[in-house]
């Protein structure tokens, strides 16, 4: 019976319009829209990857070999299962034009490339015409490399010992996204043109890809299983069009999950606004609630009445959020896709929208039950006596259990939907901890301002005393502003601290002495001459060299490595391998011993200690490493410290020389020299040995920093949504305090205060609250930044003051503007009319 009565009362009250619920709707809609938009963009990218999987990969399937070409038997099998096979080779080299040199990622292609998709060139012309042999073989390169080297179409450049003519600029390659991260811009030439370059020889660092066009009825699962079985010990890496760009797909999935969790932070901020809006609305309904209770309405009827109203408005807010989250990516699709390295298909995807709706419903329930439950338990007499809403006790224990169950459900669903349990739990814990800290800080700020208002500091400063008294007094907006604006600023501060520290960890926290260049592909016959040429320059301080091979760790104690050690990064792809008869001077052994200089027994290996522990390896374990298509079985003789942070020559595996006897290989070198001499050294060494590739440490750092900048920008966009929601809540808090300010202004005018003094008091109040929220955000952001850098990045953390200062300034400014915006109305009210209404 009570529910039907509650429904009827709720329907009648809703007829009065949405007055008092605009902030409620805005907060809920913004939070849901942010999550829905991120999910829609992620779904669009996943759909694009699925639709264009063959073009991104370069074929229906791909067989890739490390530092060798497929044998005749292997090529025959690949041809037997396909209608076409395209052979390409990929490696790093130096493009040379006069005195200009640039690191480039070279792709040598055959006549069938690309099997799928189109290469876009400027000026537009078919790729085969751009690469055809005329007086010289042709080549195309990305504009950034051409600009860096001062090249125009028609100019010539050299790769190794072969000269090429630049026929066009490479605007887009269809399989670029599947190629992964490269240290240099792309150059494309023909395999035939590379034959006389001296760059593709045994032992040099290159990869070959065989892209397959399969019959329409081909079963990808069956073919993949057959390939893995046939080439299990041949160093093959197999991919098909279902996972054309695995690195991009993993990145998009993880970034999308992270941004959804950042969106949940925004929804939590919006929840605070929802709770404040409901509380303010109920304050305005005090007389109505008191009248209903006097007429016999039970507490449950009151609770149901306003829960129905809030439920209807929640659905409206979620509908608005879903519409925005679906339509904004659709409208901005062309702009977003133009900035993506992969294709995307933007449309309406029900999955992400439903996920956002579930988050919205749970968040709304969590934050509205508390004020509704409190209103239910207030007596009618108390309501009539206390216009501000009566007591402030906690809701009944049953309601607290419901709120807790809803919160657990929200966190559990976030972990399930995102697929990253630890990150979801850490985010939930961070939000809860931040809210707790903010609540404590709001309480401390109130106490502090109350005491300051009575101190000597406030004497003779009426505006300041009034502002401090209002911040420290009961019933103000201190808690609402600190919680809402503080949480939004905390998320943004944390992003700023993490982004700055990550960049510092790469670019500034380098070792005191770092190499200027890495040189690769130094042939055995070139090593002595290379060292002599380099040491002729007095600016060279030191050169370290080591033999260089690449191998894939395929088995541990006879079992497939991934079955034993899981999906560890050492097992994903090939790793550097070297050999040494003597223990290097900087090699620190943690277990075992080095082999004798003239050792000629069963092959041995010294393994990196930290990675060995993560893989669960022990002394005496047998490892099978595929090198150039041949399995090498070695026994672990020792573990040693490997510090990749020193930017020197570091290998996961160092073998005894007899393990790699006869294996073709090259050498790697690190050159330490004065910065002013780097250009001179590069010209001298590249001129003498054109096949050797030089990788500048500063250029590599710049490429990584650019990638991190894009990630930080995407994260900042997500954090900005949280901050915008916080500003909406701030506006709601300011609007909710309008009635209180009207009364304050009337009283102050009556006792002789001028409008300027009253406005100054209101402005100081808002600035104090904003600055306090900013200071709390700095503390929270610093703690979050320290936690991420220390426990996730495993790097040092240094407080970054510039972004912190901007956070405080932004918080104070935002709060000041919102406070001033809602102060003009109270100042214009006539004291007599206001005070008469309180009689």
From TrEMBL:
Residue ranges of domain ABC3 transporter permease C-terminal in the record: 262-374, 722-820
Q: What is the membrane topology listed in the Swiss-Prot or TrEMBL record?
A: Multi-pass membrane protein
Per its UniProt entry, which superkingdom is the organism in? Bacteria
Single GO cellular component term:
plasma membrane
TM ranges:
21-41, 255-278, 310-336, 356-373, 394-417, 423-445, 466-495, 717-737, 758-784, 804-829
Which UniProt keyword terms apply here? Cell membrane, Membrane, Transmembrane, Transmembrane helix
Location in the cell reads: Cell membrane
**Pfam families from the xrefs?**
FtsX
| Name of the protein in its database record | ABC3 transporter permease C-terminal domain-containing protein
Protein's organism: Pontivivens insulae
